[in-house]
Amino acid sequence: MAVVLAGLNGCWPSRWDGAYNLYQGRCHYDRGVNEQPLAVTARIPASLSAQVDDGLALAGEAQVGERLRLRDATLWGAAGTPEIANRLGWLTIAERMLGELDAVESFVQEVRREGFEDVVLLGMGGSSLAPEVLRRSFGHRSGHPRLHVLDSTDAAAIGAVQQAVDRSGIGQQRTLFIVSSKSGGTIEPLSLFARFYRSEIGQLDGDGARFVAITDPGSGLAQLAGKDRFRRTFLGDPDIGGRYSALSPFGIVPAALIGVDVRGLLEGAQGAWQTAIAAASGGEGSAPAASKHTAAVWLGAALSALARAGRDKLTFLISESLPGLGLWLEQLVAESTGKHATGILPVAEEPVGAPEVYGEDRVFAHLPDLGAPDPELDARVLALARAGHPVITIPTSGPADLGRVFMLAELAVAVAGWGLQINPFDQPNVQQAKDATKRVLADYEASHRLPEAQDADEQALRTLLLDSTPPEYVAIMAYAQPSAELDAAAAALRTAIRAATRATTTFGYGPRFLHSTGQFHKGGPRTGRFLQLLHDGPADVAIPGAPYTFTTLKNAQAIGDLNTLRELGRPAERVRLQGEDPVGAMRALTARIKEST
Predict the structure, then answer these.
(1) Least confident span in 26-40, 76-90, 458-472, 495-509
(2) How far apart are CA 335 and CA 520, in angstroms?
(3) What domains does the chain contain, in order, with CATH numbers?
C-alpha cells in the first residue's frame, strides 16, 4: 500500500471560542516554508496494510481528528482522568506565544544591549531538548550570544561549559544563565544553579541579574527567582507537559536569544494542522481514494497499528541539517507511549545499515531536508522500502520548518496514544528513578559511602548483548561526559551489536535519558536489555549547600536507575569505563564484543 499525504497549503485556525471549537482564521504561514511541496508519503508492505487500514478506520469511527480539535480529553481516558484535561495547552500554544513575542523580543534586545556573549541553559528533559535542537540546527548567529545547553551532572561536562564561557577570564561576567524547569523542583537544574550562582568565582556570587528563570506559575523556582532577584522570570503554561513544551517559553525564549526567527517557527507550527492526506491506493492498479484524515491523525493511527502488529521500533533517519531532532523526538515518543507494557520505542542516531541487518520489528521515519538533498540517504531509504520494511517520509524545509515539525510530531504522538489506549501525557515510571536516587543519597548522607555495583564479567556481557534477538532491544546508558567522540564510539558499539544479533539498539546519556527513554525502559514492553556505562573523570565539582558533589550525584543516579531496572526484573549490567579516556575504554569494550561473536 502506498499513501500520499498532502503538503501544507493552509494554516490552523486563529482562535478558539469559549467551547473550544476551532474557527478558521487568516493564514500567516507564508515565510517560505511552504514554497516546496511538503507531501508526506508512506510505503507500507502488503502484509501490514490490513492492520494499518483497520487502525485508520477506527480513527474515523472515533472521530479522532475532530475530537482533537475540540480538545476532547475523553479521547484518552474517562472524564476526570488525571493528567489529561489539564495537559492540552500545547494544542494552542503557538498562537498564544505569537501574542507574547513583543515581551520576548524586548528582552532579547536588552540582553544584546548589555553585551552578554553567552547564554547557558541549565535544564533537563523537556526543558533542554528543544533548545538543544534549535542551538545545533541554527548555530551561532553574529550579533547574538552563543547558547550552551547543560543537562548533565557529569563534573567534566560542567567544567567544560564553565571553561567555554570564561574564555577571557571575565567571560562569566558576560554570561546569562537560564534556569529552566517546569516543576521548579528538578534536582539537576537546581544543583547546577547552586553551582553557578554561588560559585567560587566571586563576580557571580549572589548576582541575580545574570539569571533568568523559565518555570510554571507558583513553582519553587519561581519563588527562588523572586527571592534572589533574577533578571526575568518567564512563566510557562501549567497545562502543558514538559515534552510538549517546545513552542512554549521553554523553547522560544532560548531560541529568540540566539537570533532564531521564532515568529516564523510559531507561524509554521500553525500549518501542521492542515497537512492532509491527498490520496491513498490499496495496491498496484487500484484507483486513488480520498481520505478524510489529516497527516497527524494518519501518522498516529498508522504508527500505533504498526506497533500492535509488532513493528514497534520507530527508527528515525534524519537530515544532517537537523542535528539533535532525533533526541527531541525520542523523548516525545518514548515518554508518551512507553507505559503499561506497551509503547513505540524511538530509535535515534543509529547508524544506517543495509536492509538485512534489521529485524522485522522496525518502522522507519525519514525526515529529509528538501533544501539540502542527501542522495545517499535517499537511496538507503528506498532500499529499506523495497526490502519490505514500512517507511514513512516526512519532508521538511530545514531548520526554519522546525515549528511545523514539532507540532506535527506532537499531534501524531497524541493520536498514537489513543491508538495504543494509553494516556500520552503522563509518565508514571519516571518518578521511580527519582525516588531511587533520593534513597541512595539519603544513605550516602548517613554513611558517606555509595554502594558499588559489580562490573559485568565477560559471560554476563555476552549473555546480555549477544543473546538478544528481535523484538528485543539493547539500551546503552552512559553516565559520562557527552562528546562527539563518545557518540561515535557508541555508534560503533551499536553497529557491532546489531551486526551480531539484528537487535535494535539505543544510546543515551545519563541523567538526560532518565527524563526521556527512562520511562519506556521501565513502563514499556518487557523486551529491553540494559547496559550501563559509568565513567568518572579525575576532577569533581562541588554543589554549594549540598552534602555531596556532582560526581556523587551522578553515581547515585546511576545506582538508583540500575537498582530500579533490576527490581522490575529487567536484565541490566554495568561496566565502569576505566582511566581518563572514556572514548578509548568504550572502543576497547566494542573490540571485546566483536571478539566474542
Answers:
(1) 26-40
(2) 6
(3) 2-8+37-92+269-420 (3.40.50), 100-268 (3.40.50.10490), 430-596 (3.40.50.10490)
